[in-house]
């Protein structure tokens, strides 16, 4: 099996020659295109992982100023003819040229609601979501229309799929009705792009924010179109096995993103991987972390230890 075939087998729930693995972390938004390509290739080459997740560490080009509810109707997002999109396109093309065809390139995307938070501030977004939801919905739709085109563009230039960060489903943030009106339709608008193109994939990452202790209504995302699903096991008490039964999709994750894979030692990393696979089995799983690895002094040799432990696992 090559790396593509191995991930495809995980998605289909078929046996693999060895359990694949993938980990990632954020880079500086000041990186040039070449620096971003180099960083991704260094991670891939030095750890031996089985997939390349391309980080979206450049901001989406969203413009406007929110001073009243009416302003949500007038925000704008640049399209795929923009300099900002072309920068990401160059990253994808550069990584493909160096990585070859035998690995899936999955482009990270943040949902329209998160994109609005980054552009206008979390406090502003939440204030108007409660006070003027119809206006916020109109603004989020503008962003979603733009990101739908970005997703299509990413896939057309060579990305194999979208790694979609689905947020704003935390406990205590929105009622289910509010979430279904404000957030879900626009997540689906972007996620459905991959489902309309043969041979493209969605990796669904269910993510919470620190002010809500990262606790999320995992079950709200059950009908999102996903080939692999990832969430924070440690923060939600929602096991990989429970997720497998609920989502009926391949599973990515299991490791504490702020734990052993960040801090070591390698023996602890190997023990954690073994425990995960002893419980779950080796079919339908790719070893990874609850989220991006977060913290200081991220070490590639620790990540490689996790990848090697997955590749060499025998019960």
Automatic annotation (TrEMBL):
InterPro entries: Methanogen_methyltrans (IPR052024), UROD/MetE-like_sf (IPR038071), Uroporphyrinogen_deCOase (IPR000257). Residues 63-313 form the Uroporphyrinogen decarboxylase (URO-D) domain. GO terms for biological process: porphyrin-containing compound biosynthetic process. GO terms for molecular function: uroporphyrinogen decarboxylase activity. This is Uroporphyrinogen decarboxylase. It comes from Anaerosporobacter mobilis DSM 15930.
């Amino acid at each position: 099996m090559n790396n593509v075939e191995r991930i495809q087998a995980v998605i289909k729930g078929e046996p693999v020659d060895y359990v694949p693995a993938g980990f990632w972390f954020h880079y500086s938004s000041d990186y040039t295109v070449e620096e971003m390509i180099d960083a991704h290739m260094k991670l891939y080459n030095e750890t031996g992982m089985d997939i390349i997740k391309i980080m979206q560490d450049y901001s989406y080009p969203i413009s406007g100023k929110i001073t009243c509810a009416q302003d949500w109707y007038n925000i704008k997002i640049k399209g795929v003819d923009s300099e900002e999109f072309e920068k990401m396109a160059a990253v994808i093309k550069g990584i493909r040229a160096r990585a070859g065809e035998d690995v899936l390139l999955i482009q990270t995307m943040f949902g329209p609601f998160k994109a609005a938070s980054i552009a206008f501030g979390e406090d502003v977004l939440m204030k108007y979501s409660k006070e003027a939801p119809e206006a916020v919905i109109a603004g989020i739709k503008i962003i979603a229309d733009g990101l739908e085109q970005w997703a299509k563009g990413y896939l057309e230039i060579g990305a194999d799929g979208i790694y979609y960060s689905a947020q704003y489903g935390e406990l205590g943030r929105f009622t289910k009705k509010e979430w279904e009106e404000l957030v879900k339709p626009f997540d689906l608008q972007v996620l459905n792009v991959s489902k309309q193109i043969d041979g493209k994939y969605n990796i669904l990452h269910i993510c919470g924010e620190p002010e809500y202790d990262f606790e999320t209504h995992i079950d709200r995302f059950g009908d999102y179109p996903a080939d692999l699903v990832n969430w924070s096991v440690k923060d939600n008490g929602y096991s990989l096995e429970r997720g497998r039964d609920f989502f009926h999709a391949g599973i990515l994750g299991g490791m504490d993103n702020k734990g052993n894979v960040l801090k070591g030692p390698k023996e602890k990393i190997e023990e954690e991987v073994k425990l995960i696979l002893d419980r779950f089995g080796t079919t339908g799983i790719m070893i990874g972390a609850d989220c991006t690895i977060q913290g200081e002094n991220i070490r590639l040799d620790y990540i490689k230890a996790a990848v090697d432990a997955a590749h060499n696992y025998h019960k």
